[in-house]
Design brief:
Binding site for Zn(2+): 27, 212, 237, 241
Strand order of the largest sheet: 4-3-9-10
Bound molecules: zinc ion
Shape: elongated
Protein name: Cysteine--tRNA ligase
GO molecular function: cysteine-tRNA ligase activity
Main location: cytoplasm
Largest sheet: 4 strands, parallel
Distance between the termini: 38 Å
Radius of gyration: 27 Å
CATH class of the largest domain: Alpha Beta
Enzyme class: ligase
CATH topology of the largest domain: Rossmann fold
Length: 473
């Protein structure tokens, strides 16, 4: 299997540190608001990647943090006149509810920054001892220039970075630094009402970047297989994580860096973000949108490509899911009925070919679009067999299992998908029975009327010697 590594800018053969096991760290949300669909995209992308690894038989140790203290948390708590921890608690619960609705598997562990203060202080001390960090007026900063490979992940050299750093507007902070490139590991409390912890340097709180270095190394080890996050985290967040972790441990931090693309919105395809005020929260969207449709919409675009969010694109995802649903309903129906099985080598060959194409596509850096295209090609072949008097039960049973597993990788539960049609099914069964009765009574006009009514619902009725059979068009 090949994975695109942001650090080397190439697709590399994936080799885990321990056979059969994968350590994966994904940067989690700052819990000061409901997640917007740009955040959901990252969560869904890495859940889909995780599910594919699990499908391939790996045991995935998946850690994702909650940033429950930073400037945004402090400002929002102040605005709402509640404590930072009450704010965090509220939005952590909201996050769990939203991601559960999107059928995201819970992480193995969700460490919280505020529970890791002791470990963070210890980590910063290590960096000071090694000469990579220094205290200045109660803050602690990282000596960026001392880390030789700084900028490698985001392909920037020190000159470019210097130009960027000089644009910083926080003059007071710049004065405390030895170098404009340095970044904060520990921030001294600025106002008495600010949440703060005692440390060797000041009453204060950790910077954002340090928490991920601490949690990743603490819970997954000095070197991990995969570190993920949105493309916007490449610089400076992940660059800083590498600098902190590798300086502290002296070991390689991450083997494969994976970054998901943005969600864009509107005709100009602007990046969706809280700062641009063009975001849609998952919490709001799920009031009007089937979570399975949103999940499928997001999971069906290659994780590195941008997703353009629009109601048309959501509608398209809904239509594709409907096609899956139709085939799955017919599969369940025909596998249960009493028709005699008839082997179809052509259908069996098509299923085997789809299986190979699916794995080949997914093994190529999770090319979900090619993988789905392979499945879409199979559906009409299955549908054709399903409409015959004698189906290939063995082949169709295998196809049913494959479709269930494959949709599962995309976070779609076929059970849930079929449940949503259950109500309509009851109505169909009732109408089909009425029509059969009408035929027995030779009430042809009534029978035709019922057939037309079913046709309008997208149901074709067939009269066979074994009785009346129905299927979705
Ligand atoms: Zn992070």
């Amino acid at each position: 299997m090949k994975i695109y590594n942001t650090l080397t800018k190439t697709k590399e053969e994936f080799r885990p540190i321990r056979p059969g096991e994968i350590s994966m760290y994904v940067c989690g949300p700052t819990v000061y608001n409901y997640i917007h669909i740009g955040n959901a995209r990252s969560v869904i992308a890495f859940d889909t990647i995780r599910r594919y690894f699990e499908y391939k038989g790996y045991r995935v140790n998946y850690v994702s943090n909650f940033t429950d203290v930073d400037d945004k948390m402090i400002n929002e708590a102040r605005a709402q006149k509640i404590s930072v921890s009450a704010l965090a608690q509220h939005y952590i619960e909201a996050y769990r509810a939203d991601t559960a609705a999107l059928n995201v598997q819970p992480a193995t562990l969700n460490p919280r920054a505020t529970n890791e203060i002791t470990a963070i202080i210890k980590f910063i001390q290590q960096l000071i001892t090694k000469g990579y960090a220094y205290e200045s007026a109660g803050d602690v900063y990282y000596r960026t220039r001392k880390f030789a490979n700084y900028g490698a992940l985001s392909s920037q050299n020190i000159t470019e970075l210097e130009a960027g750093a000089s644009e910083h507007v926080n003059v007071a902070e710049q004065k405390r630094k030895e170098d404009p490139l340095d970044f904060a590991l520990w921030k001294k409390q600025k106002q008495a009402d600010e949440i703060a912890w005692a440390s060797p340097w000041s009453l204060g709180r950790p910077g954002w970047h340090i928490e991920c270095s601490v949690m990743s190394t603490k819970y997954l080890g000095n070197t991990i297989d995969i570190h993920g996050g949105g493309q916007d985290l490449e610089f400076p967040h992940h660059e800083n994580e590498i600098a902190q972790s590798e300086a502290a441990t002296g070991q390689k931090f991450v083997h494969y860096w994976m970054h998901n693309g943005f969600v864009t919105v509107g005709a100009d395809q602007a990046k969706m973000s809280k700062s641009l005020h063009n975001f849609v929260t998952v919490h709001d969207l799920l009031k009007t949108t089937d979570p399975q449709v949103l999940r499928f919409f997001m999971a069906s675009v290659h994780y590195r490509r941008p997703i353009n969010y629009s109601t048309e694109n959501l509608e398209q995802a809904k239509n594709i899911l409907q096609k899956f649903k139709n085939t799955l309903v017919n599969l369940a129906y025909r596998l249960n009925d009493s028709s005699i099985s008839d082997r179809s080598p052509a259908v069996q060959a098509a299923i085997a070919q789809t299986e190979r194409n699916f794995i080949k596509a997914m093994d190529d850096d999770l090319n979900v679009q090619n993988a789905l295209a392979a499945i879409y090609d199979l559906l009409p072949i299955l549908n054709a067999n399903l409409s015959l008097a004698k189906v290939d039960k063995e082949a169709l049973k295998h196809a049913q299992k494959l479709l269930t597993d494959w949709l599962g990788i995309f976070g779609i539960s076929t059970k849930k998908l079929l449940n949503t049609v259950q109500k309509q099914d009851d109505e169909i069964v009732r109408l089909v029975a009425q029509r059969e009765q009408a035929r027995k009574n030779q009430e042809w006009a009534k029978s035709d009327e019922l057939r037309d009514k079913l046709k309008a619902m997208g149901i074709t009725v067939e009269d066979t010697p074994q009785g009346t059979r129905w299927r979705r068009d």
